[in-house]
């Protein structure tokens, strides 16, 4: 269900983007939407920090609504940017980071509520804030060196891979929550947050499901990359396959019970860090090799 | 019109003194004997308090005499440590009591039910009128708000409830958990009952004396397991509750580690309530095993209490807002909303809110 919904949203977004007949001059309003979105995530983070400092930590609906509002602004940004470009807005590192942040928020909205992991919002907001904050501050919103034409397969490949990264990001967040809970239980030192974290078994079930979903989406993303009609740099392909193999190895080891839940949770964090590094590398080499 | 609270609690009197004043009077008898327009008696193991509304000032001694009505002891023979709160202070005190802030275990929720029961009892007897009705209804609302908006009731503070709380943090629903109780003593039984109350159905009891194991198993709805078989059970159980009289540890890492492979990633929660301990502390180093001995359980309970104490300021702030608002609303005219008291025999004069 979640996958179908994600696909339809992504495809819809790209389709809407293509509706823009002619590329237009940049409209500053899109940037305002992104700033508004970032502000929403900032509010969610500040709210959590204040609650943690006062010792009254209660993950209520506030975070969910703040992230929801931030998501709406993100979508507005991507929609406008897509119209300008006449294609799915994933043409430079700036757009890639925003799209990734959008994917993380999307998956949280779908998964966070489904698995009753309301606290996930507390961990999701800082990650999205970090991604978007970096995108806004760093001088990475540069025009792509070559004219980027619409290519359905390429857009599908890129957007599907980024949504998969979003799912891996949520798996990473669930991993952090698991390790936090596990450590408190092992050391017998229970903080206020302990009483609001989901049970260990529920967290691990969520991690496993997220890994499977992310892996499936990423596989689709990689396979679709072979139909783009563009020759991709070998290093990109190798790195993408290496990441795919890493997640495949985690799932296989999990299946064969070679890895305990704690190690799987830790590997989720390592895996997503690798994914982020790969994302950077792909965008960097794409710009270097003038790949659309 | 005076609103007052006269009473004694664990803060001011020991249990012997509290016993002297408990169970001798009812709200109705106090209202009649002391001449109050309205009265309510709150008696718990930790406090005996009278909330009253009267036209004239009623002395503390008079209420003390009413509370001692059925005893032969002279209240003047010693100075019972009664406290007295009036008007705003009385409202604040009741809100604190109902919210569990004045309790021996801060944040405990039993007092809420006891206050409700006392209110119901006084209302049925006709001793409660519009003042106390509004006051107690507001107190219940405040107590609920305090519990919802702070962590004052968070965390368990007894051995049984800590064990249950930790088990829920690990497994979520306990209804699917398999529990092995090793040792059929009183401590085991109490903790087992706490687990059963949270949905545990698969219970196995093992004891050196099989008869005693059968006895406990029957009492808690489980089944007895021969003592020589309990180690093998560790392959499939989720919670091990142990409290035997063994002088040496019964479970060590070397015994448990090979069994973990068969457990399909299910965590194992071990509650060792025995002194000397039944489980070697090194077991806690094994992945997926969470060992809590009696000291760590107590430490968790203390952390919960400390957490609750941290919440007191936030709870006091909520209460302060309500006290101001309540007193203002009463001043603006309680009689606008209230009906004339049904127990006209108790209240001689109509109540004038502005006098509060």
Secondary structure elements and pairings:
The complex is a heterodimer of chains A (292) and B (356).
Chain A: H1 2-19, H2 29-54, H3 61-85, H4 93-114, H5 120-137, H6 152-187, H7 200-225, H8 234-255, H9 261-288
Helix pairs in contact in A: 1-3, 1-6, 2-3, 2-5, 3-4, 4-5, 4-6, 6-7, 6-9, 7-8, 8-9
Chain B: E1 2-9, H1 15-21, H2 27-34, E2 38-43, E3 47-54, H3 60-67, E4 83-86, H4 87-99, H5 110-124, H6 130-149, H7 159-171, E5 178-182, H8 186-197, E6 202-206, H9 210-220, E7 223-225, H10 230-233, E8 239-242, H11 253-260, E9 268-272, E10 289-293, H12 294-310, H13 312-331
Parallel strand pairs in B: 5-6, 5-8, 6-7, 8-9, 9-10
Antiparallel strand pairs in B: 1-3, 1-4, 2-3
The averaged pLDDT of chain B comes out at 85
**Helix- and strand-based class of chain A?**
mainly alpha
Order of helices and strands of chain B: EHHEEHEHHHHEHEHEHEHEEHH
Strand line-up of the largest beta sheet of chain B: 7-6-5-8-9-10
Strand percentage of chain A, roughly? Answer: under 5%
Basic shape of chain A: globular
Question: What would CATH call the homologous superfamily of the largest domain in chain B?
Answer: Glutamyl-tRNA reductase, N-terminal domain
Q: List how many beta strands of chain B DSSP finds.
A: 10
Kindly provide the radius of gyration of chain B, computed on alpha-carbon positions and rounded to a whole number of angstroms: 26 Å
Describe this entry's structure for a reader.
The complex is a heterodimer of chains A (292) and B (356). Chain A has 292 residues and is mostly helical. Chain A has one domain. In chain A, 76% of the residues lie in helices and 0% in strands. In chain A, helix 2 runs antiparallel to helix 3 (61-85) and helix 3 runs antiparallel to helix 4. The longest helix of chain A has 36 residues, at 152-187. Chain B is an alpha/beta fold and 356 residues long. Chain B folds into two domains: 2-153 and 311-355, Glutamyl-tRNA reductase, N-terminal domain (Beta Polymerase, domain 2, 2-Layer Sandwich); 159-304, Rossmann fold. Chain B has a six-stranded parallel β-sheet with strand order 7-6-5-8-9-10. In chain B, helix 11 links the parallel strand 8 (239-242) and strand 9 (268-272). The longest helix of chain B has 20 residues, at 130-149. Chain B is elongated. Mean pLDDT of chain B is 85; it is low at 337-356. At the A-B interface, helix 6 and helix 7 of A face helix 7 and helix 12 of B.
């Amino acid at each position: 269900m979640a996958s179908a919904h994600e696909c339809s949203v992504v495809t819809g977004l790209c389709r809407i983007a293509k509706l823009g007949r002619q590329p237009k001059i940049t409209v500053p309003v899109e940037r305002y939407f992104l700033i508004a979105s970032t502000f929403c995530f900032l509010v969610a983070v500040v709210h959590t920090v204040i609650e943690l400092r006062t010792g009254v930590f209660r993950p209520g609906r506030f975070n969910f609504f703040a992230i929801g509002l931030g998501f709406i602004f993100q979508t507005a940004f991507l929609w406008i940017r897509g119209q300008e470009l006449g294609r799915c807005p994933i043409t430079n590192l700036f757009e890639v980071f925003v799209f990734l942040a959008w994917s993380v928020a999307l998956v949280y909205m779908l998964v966070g509520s489904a698995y009753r992991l309301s606290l996930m919002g507390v961990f999701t907001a800082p990650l999205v804030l970090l991604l978007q904050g970096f995108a806004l501050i760093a001088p990475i919103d540069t025009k792509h060196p070559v004219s980027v034409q619409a290519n359905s397969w390429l857009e599908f490949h890129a957007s599907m891979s980024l949504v998969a990264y979003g799912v891996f990001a949520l798996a990473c967040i669930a991993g952090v929550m698991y390790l936090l809970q596990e450590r408190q239980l092992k050391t017998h030192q229970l903080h206020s947050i302990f009483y609001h974290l989901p049970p260990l078994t529920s967290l691990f079930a969520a991690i496993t499901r997220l890994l499977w979903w992310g892996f499936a989406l990423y596989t689709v993303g990689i396979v679709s990359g072979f139909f783009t009609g563009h020759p991709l740099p070998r290093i990109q392909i190798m790195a993408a396959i290496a990441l795919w193999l890493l997640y495949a190895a985690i799932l296989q080891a999990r299946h064969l019970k070679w890895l305990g839940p704690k190690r799987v949770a830790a590997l989720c964090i390592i895996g997503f860090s690798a994914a982020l590094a790969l994302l950077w590398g792909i965008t960097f080499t794409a710009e270097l090799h003038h790949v659309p | 019109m005076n609103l007052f609270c006269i009473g004694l609690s664990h803060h001011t009197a020991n249990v012997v003194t509290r016993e002297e004043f408990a169970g001798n009077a009812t709200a109705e008898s106090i209202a009649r004997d002391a001449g109050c327009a309205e009265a309510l008696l709150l008696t718990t193991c930790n406090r005996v308090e009278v909330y009253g509304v009267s036209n004239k000032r009623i002395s503390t001694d008079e209420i003390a005499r009413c509370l001692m009505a059925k005893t032969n002891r002279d209240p003047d023979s010693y100075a019972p440590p009664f406290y007295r709160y009036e008007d705003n202070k009385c409202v604040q005190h009741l809100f604190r009591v109902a919210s569990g802030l004045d309790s021996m275990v801060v944040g405990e929720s039993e007092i809420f039910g006891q206050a409700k029961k006392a209110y119901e009892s006084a209302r049925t007897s006709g001793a409660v009128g519009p003042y106390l009705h509004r006051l107690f209804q507001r107190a219940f609302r405040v107590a609920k708000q305090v519990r919802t908006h702070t962590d004052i009731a968070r965390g368990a503070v007894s051995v049984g409830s800590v064990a249950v709380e930790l088990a829920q943090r690990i497994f979520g629903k306990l209804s699917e958990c398999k529990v092995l109780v090793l040792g059929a003593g009183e401590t085991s039984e109490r903790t087992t009952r706490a687990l059963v109350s949270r949905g545990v159905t698969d219970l196995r009891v093992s004891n050196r004396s099989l008869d005693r194991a059968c006895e406990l198993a029957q009492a808690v709805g489980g089944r007895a397991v021969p003592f020589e078989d309990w180690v093998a059970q560790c392959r499939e159980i989720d919670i091990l509750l142990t409290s035997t009289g063994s002088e040496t540890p019964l479970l060590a890492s070397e015994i448990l580690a090979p069994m973990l492979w068969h457990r399909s990633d299910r965590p194992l929660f071990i509650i060792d309530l025995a002194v000397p301990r039944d489980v070697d502390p090194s077991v806690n180093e094994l992945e997926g095993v969470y060992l809590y001995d009696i000291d760590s359980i107590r430490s968790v309970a203390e952390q919960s209490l400390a957490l609750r104490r941290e919440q007191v300021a936030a709870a006091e702030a909520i209460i302060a807002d309500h006290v101001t608002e309540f007193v203002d609303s009463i001043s603006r005219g309680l009689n606008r909303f209230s009906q004339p008291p049904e127990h006209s025999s108790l209240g001689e004069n109509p109540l004038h809110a502005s006098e509060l």
